[in-house]
Design brief:
Elements: E1 8-9, E2 12-15, H1 17-27, E3 31-36, H2 47-52, H3 66-70, E4 81-88, E5 100-101, H4 110-128, E6 134-137, H5 145-151, E7 156-157, E8 163-164, E9 172-179, E10 182-183, H6 199-203, E11 209-211, E12 218-220, H7 226-232, E13 247-249, H8 253-256, H9 259-263, H10 272-280, H11 286-293, H12 303-310
Parallel strand pairs: 2-10, 5-13
Antiparallel strand pairs: 1-2, 3-4, 4-9, 6-9, 7-8, 11-12
Helix pairs in contact: 1-4
Bound molecules: cobalamin and iron/sulfur cluster (2 copies).
């Protein structure tokens, strides 16, 4: 019998938000907030508008399950609460050299790490509340991680469309537990902290952050975005007009411009060994590339995409290189 198994009313478990937050801190999450599971309004999440303008490029998975993406109760039957969780990742230093990798990819794959942490949290909550049911998600499920973090008071959606936490900036991974249980207290959304600032919008070398007609909010047009093109785009060559500023996997430019990120404390350490490996990656053969990227976000791309991205000296990445033949 769980410690607080008696807090079950009409078949619904009510959990203490304070207890869950303290368990989340024990597991190592940077922040935790709780929102009611409801449908996101079209104005809050105009996904269909984004899709209809083709801004998802060829990310077909964004078109699937659009209803679910808007309402977590369609993803988890009987869902009542979304427990949103952040893990901050700002590294203490950046890699050097002409080939840049986005900072989120310096460490081990956040999908693996957060999933483990989410399972561990779920076990602890279930230890306190017998019958507690929930499902953990990070990044890949049809649920908008950012919106739930914003609703759960963990920050606001910045003009670069990322969740900005007032303390940790946007250098945070987001995961959530969607549960059928009720919280004894829910968080309120945080106030907007961007105001008139447009630094990220102006910093994007590709003009990829656009104000979407009708929605009023900013959107990323993936077709123009370096992050999309270096990770998700599987074509043999990259758009010739893409200005990547040296990025070969992801892009940090609209985050580096943000004052909240500038002032955020470092949350991870880039040790010398890792830094050297990252810097030597452009010289890696297929075997070495696969070995090194096994538990890294870089595992999302093929070696051929990597060769295209690093270009081997060709501007914007040549479609074929000697190494590929
Ligand atoms: C598809 C996707 C991408 C695509 C498209 C990006 C995009 N902006 O949509 C690409 C490949 C380009 C991408 C890139 C990156 N991504 Co990405 N991506 C996703 C994914 C899978 C879905 C995002 C989505 O739903 N897009 C659809 C559009 C319609 O939604 P939206 O942009 O959120 O748009 C809404 C808001 O902007 C809102 N809005 C704007 N302003 C305001 C203001 C207010 C007040 C309100 C209420 C709403 C609002 O209006 C829009 C419509 O509702 C999520 C994981 C997930 N399942 O949620 C990760 C995710 C967003 N990505 C993440 C990361 C880390 C990145 C990169 C930083 C990686 C990198 N360094 O290269 C870049 C950042 C580029 C950028 N500026 O967005 C993290 C972001 C963490 C954070 N702090 O927000 C996520 C949450 C993954 C995770 N679980 O940690 N990504
Ligand atoms: S990730 Fe890079 S290319 Fe994409 S919107 Fe941000 S600055 Fe622009
Ligand atoms: S750079 Fe300015 S506008 Fe962009 S997310 Fe940061 S505070 Fe908001």
């Amino acid at each position: 019998m769980g410690l607080m198994g008696n807090l079950k009313h009409n078949g619904t478990i009510t959990f203490s938000a304070a207890l869950v937050k303290s368990l989340a801190a024990d597991v190592g999450f940077t922040a935790c907030g709780i929102a009611r599971a409801e449908r996101l309004s079209d104005s809050e999440f105009p996904l269909r508008e984004w899709l209809s303008q083709g801004m998802h490029a060829d990310m077909g998975y964004m078109q699937r399950n659009a209803d679910m993406r808007q309402d977590p109760r369609l993803l988890v039957e009987g869902a009542r609460s979304v427990i949103s969780l952040l893990v901050a990742y700002k590294p203490d230093r950046r890699m050097e050299g002409p080939v840049h990798i986005a900072q989120y990819a310096y460490g081990t794959d956040y999908h693996e790490r957060l999933k483990q942490m989410l399972y561990s949290l779920m076990q602890r909550i279930a230890g306190a509340y017998e019958g507690f049911e929930g499902r953990p998600f990070v990044d890949t499920a049809p649920i908008s991680d950012r919106h739930w973090a914003a609703r759960a008071g963990l920050g606001w959606i910045g003009h670069n469309t990322l969740l900005v936490n007032p303390q940790w900036g946007s250098y945070c991974f987001i995961g959530e537990l969607v549960t059928t249980a009720e919280a004894d207290c829910y968080d309120s959304p945080s106030p907007d902290g961007c105001g008139d600032c447009r630094r990220c919008v102006d910093a994007c070398p590709n003009g990829a952050i656009v104000r979407m007609e009708g929605a009023g909010s900013f959107q990323v047009d993936a077709r123009r975005c370096t992050s999309y093109n270096t990770i998700e785009n599987r074509n043999p060559s990259l758009p010739p007009s893409l200005d990547r500023r040296g990025y070969s996997f992801g892009c940090d430019i609209c985050q580096l411009a943000c004052p909240y990120n500038e002032q955020a404390p470092a949350a991870t350490t880039l040790d010398d060994e890792r830094k050297q490996l990252l810097e030597q990656l452009p010289d890696a053969d297929k075997g070495a590339f696969r070995r090194f990227t096994k538990h890294s976000p870089l595992n999302r791309i093929t070696y051929e995409q990597w060769l295209r991205n690093i270009g081997r000296g060709e501007p914007n990445g040549g479609s074929k290189t000697k190494t590929e033949e």
